[in-house]
Amino acid sequence: MTSAESAHVVQSSSPSETRKVTVAGAIGFFVENYDNSVYGFLAGIIAIVFFPQGAEAVALLFTFGIFAVSFVFRPVGGVLLGIMSDRVGRRPAMVLALTLMAGATTTIGLLPGYASWGIGSVLLLLLLRLIQGVSVGGEVSAAMSFVGEHAEPRKRGFLMSFPQAGSTLANLVGSGSAFLLTSTLSPAAMESWGWRIPFLIAAPLGIIGFYIRQKLEDTPAFTAMRDEGKIARNPLRDAFARENRRRLVLAFTLPMLNSAGFFVIFVFMPTYLTSQLKFTRPAGLLVAAVSLACATVAIPFFARISDRIGRRPVMITSCVAIIVLSVPAYLSLNAGSEALAIVAGAVLGLAFAGNYSVMHPMMLELFPSNVRTTAYALGYNVTTAVLGGAAPLILTALYGSTGNLLLPAFFVMVSAVGTAIAAYKNDETTGRSLTDFV
């Protein structure tokens, strides 16, 4: 097969196959992100269940510490499953990632609390969160490459936006289930058994996702690469080759706002509102749910715009919006009005959606097929571990020493500056053939 023929094959998936792959990617991303987000939304209750009574602030700090430590393993999972994806195939890596996530999340729902097993329950919770970190680290680049490599260039951003919207929808469902449970169950019932329900839902969701992914064929890009004997023997080493170094630097910097913004605006928001601003737990979850709903609806819209005018304008505009609106939005949250807090959450969700809609198409279009998922996963997951997973821990610790309620706004603003600079330095990649690399 010639290079020209390979390029044709890469772009020639039928519309029906592309739709099936996009739906499968969205469902799988939903399962992965639902499972991972439930811990963040129930952090306040997990702190009560898995740590000794009487030191709530310290318990919450340790709970977010476990949340952060799991992100250290995201780059490990990203590299291991990325190498698997680049050498064995995108689909096997996706299936393994989903199996690990569903199994770990279901097991968390079955764990005894500190009152029964003491420190043993904490250590098991940590182990299961580490498995979740490995799973999510490998899922992102494999699943997004799977969808993006099937899509035709002029619709790639739009089609890749559905897994992205699936991830925010998953967080919306996670926050919604937490809201429903905390609104209908007494605190005692919630701490006794109610918190387990969202985790146990992972079992049927995982089975559905596993079945769907097992039925799919691998991507044309990977199949062509395999048929031509162009599989990289060491994708991690090749990711650092001279021709990829600038791309790798961009892969570390482009996700800064994506990492910090997602976990601060969506996942940390309920805890911030309840523990620091003294909102009720249902009210905190409602604000996060509205923010997620606005982002979910807006993501495909912004992605479609990026297919027409370019990724860079959409990304930079979103960064500027976050920089300008973060402080006013957090001042509104601090006003103590639930209605005003909902409006502020909606504004932040819409401003962030532009970044979130084009983040993964930009990452996908940075690298050639033989190192794509490995390099993509490495840059994305390292930044997510530093600025995303650690964000709740950093902000909780800093608030304890400073009492500054605008810390989340400043954290997100600084990350937006970094992403804006990286987007400005990046080449425009909209419409790029995934084989057009020199």
TrEMBL record:
Residues annotated as transmembrane: 38-55, 61-83, 95-117, 193-212, 248-271, 283-302, 314-333, 339-358, 378-399, 405-424
InterPro entries: H+-coupled_symporters, MFS, MFS_dom, MFS_trans_sf, Sugar_transporter_CS
Tagged with keyword Transmembrane: yes
Keyword Transcription: no
Membrane-related topology note: Multi-pass membrane protein
Similarity annotation: Belongs to the major facilitator superfamily. Metabolite:H+ Symporter (MHS) family (TC 2.A.1.6) family.
The protein's name: Glycine betaine/L-proline transporter ProP
